[in-house]
Amino acid sequence: MALPKLFYALIAILSHFSTLAVADELRPTVGNGNLETYIVHVKKPEGRVDVQLDDMRSYHQSFLPVRTAGSSADRQPLLYSYRNVISGFSARLTAEEVEAMKEKDGFISARPERMYRLLTTHSPNFLGLHQEMGFWQKSNFGRGVIVGVLDTGIFPSHPSFSGEDMPPPPAKWKGKCEFKATECNNKLIGARSFNLAANASSLEAETPLDDDGHGTHTASTAAGGFVQNASVLGNAYGTAVGIAPQAHLAIYKVCFGPDCPESDILAGLDAAVEDGVDVLSISLGEESTPFYNDNIAVGSFAAVQKGIFVSCAGGNSGPFQQTISNEAPWILTVGASTIDRSIRATAKLGDGQEFDGESVFQPKDFPPTLLPLVYAGSNGKQDSAFCANGSLSGVDVKGKVVLCDRGGGIARLDKGREVKNAGGAAMILANQQSDGFSTSADAHVLPATHVAYSSGLKIKAYINSTTSPTATILFKGTVIGDPLAPIVSSFSSRGPSLATPGIVKPDIIGPGVNIIAAWPFPLDGSTNSKLTFNVESGTSMSCPHLSGVAALLKSAHPYWSPAAIKSAIMTAADLVNLKGTSIVDERLTPADIFATGAGHVNPSKANDPGLVYDISPDDYIPYLCGLGYTDEQVGIIAHRSVHCTSKIPEGQLNYPSFSATLGSSQTFTRTVTNVGEAVSYYKVKIVEPQGVSISVQPEKLSFTSVGRKQRIR
């Protein structure tokens, strides 16, 4: 007989918050005759369920103007015809052409595309994944699962993507490789590039080769193979591996530089659904907008309809509230937290004070002797305090340790370059107040350390206390065992959700700070080694961790729906850190639910959740209608005609979390499905927020079969 287990619904209490208005369009108005890329939604051809691509293109062409050679825009306007993720197309059009198109039968809507932006040797062990035992083995390391990654491409020759010891892809795979045939293999089974919008002025195709690094990093984090003797500039030495090392990778390059055109993203999504991926990992995002205007949400809904799990980065606009992106409830929205490893660099002052910070560049020849210390902002200029480009030309920093402030819209590495160019010997980078204790280990161009806000204040106080301040940096290498880990990073975007405040977002947090993974380029200038890795931070890094976890769960439980996998991840999450106390944020104070969501991912517990909150794609329709969307707007998301005859409040969606506004008694219902042992018993355990009374009925559940459902309220 199974032992009693616990079930719960995650409850967030919103005592008071205001809803901010978000403009649907942030783009400037296009003048007469100017071309811009539009996303156009049209009705499906009547009586045609499965239209072939050529027929679909012809149908979409019928909405577009005919251009003649020699005109101001003689290139044919159609960019992409979408078959799977929306009913529509993208095209280069003028405002006048869009107005004319509105008169045609079947037209629904058109708007200018939005531009989305790009938002490990130890993290698998930190998540409890061990090669010799446990969930990794039970899930066959993700064998047989295809993970699709929409990003900046991939560096195919990196050893993380070797096909050695990998089985062939599943028979359902229909994708293709746009590299040379020898560059794809049983690990990297597909690679495609979509750049018609990014490169609208040219007809020349671009390969999926990653010239940025972001895509290679995220792909290897999700499903990179085992690579021994990995390190970054000699630090964090060990075996690099992704979360699902036996899963296959399918790469869709949709970003070319920091910007990712919406029409290219839709084309990548459309291809991934057609190709047969099982999991989609999307480390891209934009500001919150209604779901019918958010084509990652629209395209992801179509993917979920096909049984594809979608994991998205929650955004890097924290620690401020209502900054979360990718909020749709059919998407797993991922926040970022630390692991228990740091690459330590300690600032030592002339009075003996020491402040631990981080840097992945740890020069062995940097002398421990004290050097003159100067604050870059001592001249009273803010640009100098931020060590902006050219700002230190009039500041005497030669041969000195320079204290720079974080922020000002200047990249951390660029601050170091300015200090080095001005003749500085080393840099101490101090956080702004909003970043608190969140630091990053970067591959700086000079000896440096990144310290907390409180440390920066004490260093400035020391500088002001003496006429001859001095300092040095002590490089201490890799240190493992921070008992406060995981800590929510300052940059991780926070809820409440603007698009759907009744659903708690983010859903989950996972490793996203100082993550080591594959990189296309050597950091030390050496061109001899293929073992190139880099350390990166962002929800872009936490997202592929959860994509890998989803792949493991899909391999272990191939018949679980995307909603069941999400429920297992959320309800099995950890609420405490390694010390056994509440998870904290960048201030080292208890993190609230809009920072952590359900908590920190625990893959092994997610493999055996007992009960799940399952949702079929059709269950989202009354929820969307309940948001106040029109039939047409819901139809854009659902990819079919919809009549909102049934509506439910947000909190009644069968989701693992909900929020409630204080002030009156409210009742929420949920349906749980048994995915544990056939004969099993469950007992409710309630942890009430202060000042709130909660009851759950019934208090006990019993099951005699797998798949049986019961209702709770």
From TrEMBL:
<dbReference type="Pfam" id="PF17766">
    <property type="entry name" value="fn3_6"/>
</dbReference>
<dbReference type="InterPro" id="IPR000209">
    <property type="entry name" value="Peptidase_S8/S53_dom"/>
</dbReference>
<keyword id="KW-0720">Serine protease</keyword>
<dbReference type="Pfam" id="PF05922">
    <property type="entry name" value="Inhibitor_I9"/>
</dbReference>
<feature type="active site" description="Charge relay system">
    <location>
        <position position="540"/>
    </location>
</feature>
<dbReference type="InterPro" id="IPR034197">
    <property type="entry name" value="Peptidases_S8_3"/>
</dbReference>
<comment type="similarity">
    <text>Belongs to the peptidase S8 family.</text>
</comment>
<dbReference type="InterPro" id="IPR023827">
    <property type="entry name" value="Peptidase_S8_Asp-AS"/>
</dbReference>
<dbReference type="InterPro" id="IPR046450">
    <property type="entry name" value="PA_dom_sf"/>
</dbReference>
<feature type="domain" description="Inhibitor I9">
    <location>
        <begin position="37"/>
        <end position="118"/>
    </location>
</feature>
<keyword id="KW-0964">Secreted</keyword>
<dbReference type="GO" id="GO:0004252">
    <property type="term" value="F:serine-type endopeptidase activity"/>
</dbReference>
<keyword id="KW-0325">Glycoprotein</keyword>
<dbReference type="Pfam" id="PF02225">
    <property type="entry name" value="PA"/>
</dbReference>
<feature type="active site" description="Charge relay system">
    <location>
        <position position="214"/>
    </location>
</feature>
<dbReference type="InterPro" id="IPR003137">
    <property type="entry name" value="PA_domain"/>
</dbReference>
<protein>
    <submittedName>
        <fullName>Subtilisin-like protease SBT1.2</fullName>
    </submittedName>
</protein>
<dbReference type="InterPro" id="IPR036852">
    <property type="entry name" value="Peptidase_S8/S53_dom_sf"/>
</dbReference>
<dbReference type="InterPro" id="IPR045051">
    <property type="entry name" value="SBT"/>
</dbReference>
<keyword id="KW-0732">Signal</keyword>
<feature type="domain" description="Peptidase S8/S53">
    <location>
        <begin position="142"/>
        <end position="576"/>
    </location>
</feature>
<dbReference type="InterPro" id="IPR037045">
    <property type="entry name" value="S8pro/Inhibitor_I9_sf"/>
</dbReference>
<feature type="domain" description="Subtilisin-like protease fibronectin type-III">
    <location>
        <begin position="652"/>
        <end position="711"/>
    </location>
</feature>
<dbReference type="InterPro" id="IPR015500">
    <property type="entry name" value="Peptidase_S8_subtilisin-rel"/>
</dbReference>
<dbReference type="GO" id="GO:0006508">
    <property type="term" value="P:proteolysis"/>
</dbReference>
<dbReference type="GO" id="GO:0005576">
    <property type="term" value="C:extracellular region"/>
</dbReference>
<dbReference type="InterPro" id="IPR041469">
    <property type="entry name" value="Subtilisin-like_FN3"/>
</dbReference>
<feature type="signal peptide">
    <location>
        <begin position="1"/>
        <end position="23"/>
    </location>
</feature>
<keyword id="KW-0378">Hydrolase</keyword>
<dbReference type="Pfam" id="PF00082">
    <property type="entry name" value="Peptidase_S8"/>
</dbReference>
<keyword id="KW-0645">Protease</keyword>
<feature type="domain" description="PA">
    <location>
        <begin position="371"/>
        <end position="459"/>
    </location>
</feature>
<feature type="active site" description="Charge relay system">
    <location>
        <position position="151"/>
    </location>
</feature>
<dbReference type="InterPro" id="IPR010259">
    <property type="entry name" value="S8pro/Inhibitor_I9"/>
</dbReference>
